[in-house]
């Protein structure tokens, strides 16, 4: 695959598209380069930035991933963005905001790009079992910053790991980042409204319907180095994964990395 032309994002065009689709978003910044959009919005949150503020970077120099990993994407080849929410539901339920974001992205990718994605716990979006997007939610005071890294036009050679993919590789019907970003943010706003009105259960139910994890044999690596193997059987109301071990005991996993095992593993 040759390297596609990567049109810069036009803030005005994106804001117009977004405003046609949703009236939830309050501020939009597009910057050429920054360290991390999550770090920038966390800082903005401390200084009172409003709910609905969005920051998109054409290039990130120190993109953060889960578990202290780096997030790498060539300039303008992906969507690297963060948005700020100030949820009023109890804090225990904020953990489900990354599931909410994954649900919104799955719906937007189908509607805007014509691709079918699946959701891997806790917050990856997969196409054909490969990661196309990572989500990183962090709490800053009474705000939640949700960061999204979506691989749009990356070629095979540009992917950081063989287990990753991009919308270009998946044959998306469009790679127009303004269309994708505005469609995605409109879906986030709609799912967030449901989350606020009906609570996280409604969103978890949508996540489960498109899950790549549930029913699978998984290996869970905990931050303390412990490992658990079992079948992923459900998601509880706080967004935790329930794993049934071979001896029938069910463990609730709040944080960890999982690998989907093949049936023969
Ligand atoms: O899969 C992961 O580990 C999560 C990756 C999240 C990356 C995005 S890119 C935009 C935002 N800014 C960051 O520094 N990280 C998130």
UniProtKB/TrEMBL annotation:
<protein>
    <recommendedName>
        <fullName>biotin--[biotin carboxyl-carrier protein] ligase</fullName>
        <ecNumber>6.3.4.15</ecNumber>
    </recommendedName>
</protein>
<dbReference type="InterPro" id="IPR003142">
    <property type="entry name" value="BPL_C"/>
</dbReference>
<dbReference type="GO" id="GO:0004077">
    <property type="term" value="F:biotin--[biotin carboxyl-carrier protein] ligase activity"/>
</dbReference>
<keyword id="KW-0436">Ligase</keyword>
<dbReference type="InterPro" id="IPR004408">
    <property type="entry name" value="Biotin_CoA_COase_ligase"/>
</dbReference>
<dbReference type="GO" id="GO:0005524">
    <property type="term" value="F:ATP binding"/>
</dbReference>
<keyword id="KW-0067">ATP-binding</keyword>
<keyword id="KW-0547">Nucleotide-binding</keyword>
<dbReference type="InterPro" id="IPR008988">
    <property type="entry name" value="Transcriptional_repressor_C"/>
</dbReference>
<dbReference type="Pfam" id="PF03099">
    <property type="entry name" value="BPL_LplA_LipB"/>
</dbReference>
<keyword id="KW-0092">Biotin</keyword>
<dbReference type="GO" id="GO:0005737">
    <property type="term" value="C:cytoplasm"/>
</dbReference>
<feature type="domain" description="BPL/LPL catalytic">
    <location>
        <begin position="18"/>
        <end position="196"/>
    </location>
</feature>
<dbReference type="InterPro" id="IPR004143">
    <property type="entry name" value="BPL_LPL_catalytic"/>
</dbReference>
<dbReference type="InterPro" id="IPR045864">
    <property type="entry name" value="aa-tRNA-synth_II/BPL/LPL"/>
</dbReference>
<dbReference type="Pfam" id="PF02237">
    <property type="entry name" value="BPL_C"/>
</dbReference>
């Amino acid at each position: 695959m040759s390297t596609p032309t990567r049109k810069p994002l036009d803030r005005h065009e994106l804001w117009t598209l977004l405003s046609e689709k949703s009236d939830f978003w309050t501020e939009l910044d597009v910057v050429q380069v920054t360290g991390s959009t999550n770090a920038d919005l966390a800082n903005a949150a401390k200084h009172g930035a409003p709910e609905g503020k969005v920051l998109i970077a054409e290039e990130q120099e120190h993109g953060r991933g889960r578990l202290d990993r780096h997030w790498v994407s060539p300039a303008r080849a992906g969507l690297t963005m963060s948005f700020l929410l100030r949820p009023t539901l109890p804090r225990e339920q904020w953990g489900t905001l990354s599931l909410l974001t994954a649900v919104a992205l799955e719906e937007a990718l189908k509607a805007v790009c014509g691709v079918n994605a699946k959701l891997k716990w806790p917050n990856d979006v997969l196409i054909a079992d490969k990661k196309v997007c990572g989500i990183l939610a962090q709490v800053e005071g009474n705000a939640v910053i949700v960061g999204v890294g979506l691989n749009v036009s990356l070629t095979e050679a540009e992917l950081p790991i063989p287990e990753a993919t991009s919308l270009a590789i998946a044959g998306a019907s469009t790679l127009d980042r303004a269309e994708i970003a505005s469609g995605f943010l409109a879906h986030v706003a709609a799912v967030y409204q449901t989350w606020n009105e009906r609570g996280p259960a409604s969103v978890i139910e949508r996540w489960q319907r498109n899950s790549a994890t549930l029913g699978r044999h998984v290996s869970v690596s905990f931050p303390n180095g412990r490992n658990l193997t079992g079948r992923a059987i459900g998601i509880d109301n706080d967004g935790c994964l329930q794993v049934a071990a071979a001896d029938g005991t069910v463990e609730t996993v709040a944080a960890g990395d999982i690998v989907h095992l093949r049936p023969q593993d």
